[in-house]
Amino acid sequence: MDLFEAIKTRRSIRAYRPDPLAPHTIEQLVRVLQNSPMASNAQELRLIVVQQPARIRAVRRFAPGLSGHPAAVLVLAADTELAKARGGKDGRDVALYLNAGVTLAYLLLAAHGLGLGACPVRSFHAAAIRTILDMPVSVEPVVLISVGYPAEAPRAKAVPSMDEVVFYERYAQSRA
Prior knowledge:
With about 180 residues, this protein is an alpha+beta fold. About 40% of the residues lie in helices and about 15% in strands. The protein has helices spanning about 5-10, 25-35, 55-60, 80-115, 125-130, 160-165, and strands spanning about 45-50, 70-80, 115-120, 140-150. Strands 1-2-4-3 form a four-stranded antiparallel β-sheet, sandwiched between helices.
């Protein structure tokens, strides 16, 4: 799939077929973390792959934004101590979230390219997720990503016109 076509056609998917993900499919997704660019090459991000149905149910209890019954939940997390050690206060307070955002985008596009549906989730109880997944206190769950084979075609996306969101040289200036 062409990159620009993938960007244009990717949608958040919240309903999944019950099919499990093949190990090689999971492997392709987790390799995305290794290849995502990171500010200062901090490498503070961690990825926890949750596939056991009972553990997914436990995560769902503390993540109201996690819809449907995904085959897996990817927990993108950050080692905040490592982020601070490698990037100082800015590394911990800013750069790790930029790194997580870039990695999230890569993961969503990779899932789409593999024919999977995925949806990022930020509404969750971090302490509960940390406990369920035996995460150390220094590792913060940043975003959950539900992943699975789409149960239905996604709705068309409403997009704003370019004149509403893109400006040239200064705010509210259209292209000459």
